[in-house]
Write a structure and sequence with these properties.
By secondary structure, the chain is an alpha/beta fold. The protein folds into 2 domains: 315 residues, Up-down Bundle (ABC transporter transmembrane region fold); 237 residues, Rossmann fold (3-Layer(aba) Sandwich), CATH 3.40.50.300. The chain contains 18 helices and 14 strands. The strands form 4 sheets. The protein has a 6-stranded mixed β-sheet with strand order 8-11-12-5-13-14, sandwiched between helices. Strands 4-3-6-7 form a 4-stranded antiparallel β-sheet, with helices on one face. A two-stranded antiparallel ribbon has the order 1-2. β6 and β7 form a beta hairpin.
């Protein structure tokens, strides 16, 4: 419980830090709260004065009552205007804070190491940035619209009641802690419930995201029933923890209402006895009862706010956890900017593992001259893609070093390193934008002629022109109007537009028909002239012209050489080749 309270306070401090950046709006909001409360509390005094003007039948000071009612009308009008402006300011502060938090969370995603994204479901991260931020916003809004006004109302009514009658006020003050204790007792126990609700919601979002993305596979393997069972199990847990959190948080309001009703009853009884003894006028008693009601009302509102704030803080804690995740190792202050790379790549005694206890690459050394075409082959899980990840510095080596043009890539800025390397992966990714914008991603300043030339070089121009709006057709990562092969051609066109000094082709033609593949291979051959190229391939027929073939197994380069040399050795590569072409 102590750890929970400490965590909650730390989260609250972080939230207040964001709010403090808007000091002017916050001060104005507080000022308007004071105006609203002051005028609201002034109205009962005016009503009490009006009642005291009615002495007995035939003795009613109508002129005085009219003047008082006019003052009441003006006060109520000003109060309404102040409340409207105050609510607008509260919305502005709350949504600007959430905007900042959400922007920082998304910016952190761009800086997180690939290891974090590989080890956390995408749906969970999406849930933190979207769903948790929305819940946080709702709780924060209630805080601004009701918390300030509620606290000031409580303090204001106490002052006004003391001014009218000290003894009756003492009755109210003595009974007030009952309401506070009840609200505090329930609030402390709802935070963990809301935290569990938020985590379960993230788990559900992650599953939905995963299943929708792989719906074809689910249906192909007839896994619909199992998927529904898994979803129902999570949905059932979400229902139970949501109901539990809602039930306990909803207890706060009726409990405080019950205590406040006792306070009001005690005030009525004490006030009536005081009025009978002449200690207070009827108008004064009416005014005091109104204050007693106004005094207890904020406790009901604040209890509701506290429950919402528990939920908001639980969600905020999850967002801050994402914001405070350790980012990828920053570039060194004196890191070199790689320009006009020659394409010389060296691996010196490189070792790497995703999990410390399971080494993947050990003692790997390699020397690639500028302009060489390097093919990487081997069985699944041998480390081909890992080698590419190390070259792109998506992961840092655990031992040894990767060098480009004689410089350790850890001494080169990531941006300049990656801008010097062009990639076409087996898994295609397209932005939700027009075809033209997708091709322009690598070179935004390119002309229309350059875009069309790149599309033609990738043999994508013909199918693009057959689309309803041609190059202005909007597509997305989940667009079903394009085949996987067409999507891959667009990714190739993106590379053709701005070919860098080093190329990485990871099964770049795996989804393309054989005829188009031969044309693409011819285009790649021209593209690779004078450029260092890494070709990850399973089909050995596509890499027979490579200058050097690296054969990997269990994280080690066990053979290297040209195609005919490796075949003549009769080793592992020869067996792979024969397994593909044996009749």
């Amino acid at each position: 419980m102590k750890q929970n309270k400490k965590s909650q306070m730390q989260t609250l401090k972080k939230v207040l830090h964001y709010i403090a950046r808007r000091k002017i709006w916050l001060a104005l909001n507080l000022l308007l709260s004071l105006v609203t409360v002051a005028l609201t509390l002034y109205v009962p005094i005016l009503v009490g004065q009006a009642i005291d003007q009615i002495v007995e039948p035939g003795k009613v000071a109508f002129d005085a009552i009219t003047q008082i009612l006019l003052t009441v009308g003006i006060s109520v009008g000003i109060t309404a205007l102040a409340q409207w402006i105050m609510n607008m300011l509260g919305n502005k502060i709350a949504y600007e804070v959430v905007q900042d938090v959400r922007s920082q969370a998304f910016a952190k995603v761009q800086k997180l190491p690939l290891s974090y994204l590989d080890s956390h479901p995408a749906g969970e991260t999406v849930s933190r940035i979207i769903a948790d931020a929305d819940q946080f916003a709702e709780g924060l809004l209630m805080g601004f619209t009701q918390l300030f006004t509620g606290v000031i109302t409580i303090l204001g009514t106490l002052l006004f009641m003391l001014r009218i009658n000290v003894w009756i006020t003492l009755v109210v003050v003595v009974m007030t802690p009952l309401s506070l204790v009840a609200a505090s007792f329930i609030a402390k126990r709802t935070y963990l419930m809301f935290r569990q609700q938020s985590e379960t919601r993230a788990e559900q979002t992650s599953l939905i995201n995963e299943i929708i993305g792989g719906q074809k596979v689910v249906q192909a393997f007839g896994h619909e029933d199992e998927t529904l069972e898994e979803f129902d199990e999570i949905n059932d847990r979400l229902e139970k923890c949501s109901l539990k959190a809602a039930f306990f948080s909803s207890l706060t309001n009726p409990v405080t209402r019950f205590v406040n009703a006792l306070v009001y009853a005690a005030v009525c009884l004490t006030g009536a006895l005081t009025a009978v003894s002449g200690g207070i006028t009827i108008g004064g008693l009416s005014c005091f009862l109104s204050y007693a009601n106004q005094y207890t009302k904020p406790f009901n509102e604040i209890s509701g706010v506290v429950a919402e704030l528990q939920n908001a803080l639980a969600c905020a804690e999850r967002i801050f956890e994402l914001i405070e995740e350790t980012p990828e190792t920053p570039d060194k202050a004196d890191a070199r900017i790689l320009t006009e790379a020659e394409g010389r790549v060296e691996l010196k005694n490189v070792s790497f593992s995703y999990v410390p206890e399971r080494p993947l690459i050990e003692g790997c050394s390699l020397n690639i001259r500028p302009g060489q075409r390097v093919a990487i082959v081997g069985p699944t899980g041998c480390g081909k893609t890992t080698l590419i990840n190390l070259l792109m510095r998506f992961y840092d080596v655990c031992g040894g070093g990767v060098f480009v043009d004689g410089t350790d890539i850890r001494e080169i800025t990531r941006e300049s390193l990656r801008s010097s390397i062009g990639m076409v992966l087996q898994e295609t990714w397209l932005q939700n934008a027009t075809i033209r914008e997708n091709i322009l991603m690598g070179k935004p300043e390119a002309t229309e002629e350059e875009v069309i030339a790149a599309a033609k070089a990738a043999y994508a121009d013909s199918f693009i022109r057959r689309l309803p709006k041609g190059y202005d057709t909007i597509i997305g990562d989940g667009d079903g109007n394009l085949s996987q092969g067409q999507r891959q051609l667009l990714c190739i066109a993106r590379l053709m537009l701005c070919p860098p000094p080093i190329l990485i082709l990871d099964e770049a033609t795996s989804s393309i028909d054989t005829r188009t593949e031969l044309k693409i291979q011819s285009a790649f051959a021209k593209l690779m002239e004078g450029r260092t190229s890494f070709i990850v391939a399973h089909r050995l027929s596509t890499i027979q012209e490579a200058d050097v073939i690296l054969v990997m197994k269990d994280g080690h380069i066990i053979e290297q050489g040209r195609h005919k040399e490796l075949l003549s050795q009769g080793g592992f590569y020869a067996k792979l080749y024969q397994s593909q072409f044996a009749i």
